[in-house]
Amino acid sequence: MNEPVRRLSVVILIMFLGLMGAASYIQVITANSLNADNRNVRTLYREYGTFRGPLIVGGEAVVTSVPVDDPFNYQRTYQDGPLYAAATGYYSIVYGRSALEQTENSLLNGSDDALFWNRLGDLFAGREQEGASVSMTLDSTLQQVATDQLGDQVGAVVALDPRTGEILAMVTSPTYDPALLAGHNSAQVNENYQELLNDPGEPLVNRAIAGDTYPPGSVFKLVVTAAALESGYSADTELYAPQELDLPGTSATMTNYADEKCSANDTTTLADALRVSCNTAFANLGMSLGWDVIERKAKEFGWTSQIDVPLRAAVSGLPDDPDAAQTAMASIGQYDVRSTPLQMAMVTAAIANDGTLMNPYLVKTVRAPDLRVIQQTEPSEYGQPMTRTDAASLTAMMVDVVDNGSGRAAAIPGVEVAGKTGTAETGLDTPPHNWFVGFAPAGNPTIAIAVLVENGGDRGSAGQEATGGIVAAPIAKAVMEAALAQDGDG
Description:
Helix content: 25-40%
Shape: globular
Number of strands: 19
CATH architecture of the domain at 217-361 and 383-487: 3-Layer(aba) Sandwich
Distance between the termini: 94 Å
Number of helices: 18
Structural class: alpha+beta
Radius of gyration: 26 Å
CATH class of the domain at 217-361 and 383-487: Alpha Beta
Strand order of the largest sheet: 3-2-1-6-14-15
């Protein structure tokens, strides 16, 4: 064999080895990730031919698959689709999957390793493969009440059981019907998706956990208060609280809401500052503590960390090395402080749970087709951002906010409620965002809640006064009342 032929043979051999290696890599190493890729339409076609497990709320299937007489065999159906869309997501032959339809896909379609013995039994028995059922932590009553209370206002509600981390309600507004994307007519599904995508209200965005992060405004003062308590402050510590505070290094000043005074003599206690949500007091407190102290406390509550419930939440952000003036602004939840409603619900839940923050979760149990439990979420601690003593002190201050301060609209007769209002400037020529966070009963909390209403909701669009105490607090009250009624405390 002459030299050119030998060289050509070596090149061809190398090409064959490369081809075999690439094929092996794709078929073995990356097979699972390719199968799970939303763009892999062939996987969806294969999945549609088998029974996909249901998504369950309170023992009732709110998402299921029903037999149909077409090449896909099954149609995914959504009972009260808009009510649960933020959690369930959609399952589409055109646009793949989202939310729990995506994160729990291998369980729902029956391909998960936990279902191996079920698949083997089905194979020998000649039965069709079936997926597992996934039970959510959502409470149908609280989900409905939160949805009704938000109405057509843009915003979100997240309610947690502070003792376990279970997500009791997760509502985003506006919402959509996943059934619009679950049809088998590709042209119609594509038209529906484009309408949702072009809707200025962005109904496909889950504002509760994964939309844009928001300036938290005065609800962030809970984090600053927690940092102050850890640093040796008490509810009775006197703070400097002028009507107008000079911001160091700038010609700017800070005032309180409506330019009001927090006290008659430019000083107030930490408890009273929180009760009336005194901006100047907390801005000066933040500068006294130093940003490093506040940042460390915020991170203990979950800021800058990736939270998966298992839906992936947007990461709540903090300013990077702010100067004194920026620290003052950040200490009242402005400047570069950003949060999701889930993050603020976690702060509130930690205070309610004696300072212990539990990991939030949305999936309670997973059952095989034979009803055998194959997965069950056990409550777990995220961390301990506060001591029991400091949490009790902050709880007492939050009760005063509702009883005698800016959160009166969240008061429930006969029940002690702890809360905090927030009114956050957007930096745009729009009304502020309105917040309320709270928990009840304050002495033995069973629900912690965060409510966000963008741009003042209906009041903001009407040009009326829009604050967290006016707009968001009544929504939280209604949801907490519904939860307490179920617990027998309302």
